[in-house]
Design brief:
single chain; alpha/beta; 4 helices; about 25% strand
Length: about 110
């Protein structure tokens, strides 16, 4: 994680994600997940690009079973966009940077 991507968990998910004034992209990941590792630098880069417009956080599913279950996470990596505490859209699987950017832009501007 870099300075732009905050690690969150069961204890602070509501405060850091659901109560955020900015839209939030949550990266649900696990340390053993190779596709998650592939997506991590894309998320870090996007966090810098969208600084001040979108908040980016990572949640380790192995360490945070409560939120993982509550959000219905069944595949990794899962990217979830939330606005005003509500899920706007979800993408599952390792996608190229261009597809992740297009997905986010379409949801922010749509």
């Amino acid at each position: 994680m870099n300075d732009q991507v905050l690690g969150v968990g069961d204890a602070d998910f509501a405060q850091q994600v659901l109560a955020s004034e900015l839209p939030v992209v949550v990266d649900f990941w696990a340390p053993w997940c190779k596709p998650c590792q592939d997506v991590a630098p894309v998320i870090a880069s996007m966090a810098e690009t969208y600084a001040g417009k979108v908040r980016f956080v990572k949640l380790n599913v192995d360490e945070n079973p409560e939120i993982t279950s509550q959000m219905g996470i069944r595949g990794l990596p899962t990217l979830m966009l939330l606005r005003d505490g509500e899920v706007v859209n979800t993408k599952v699987g390792a996608l190229p940077a261009a597809q992740i950017t297009a997905w986010l832009d379409s949801r922010l501007n749509g």
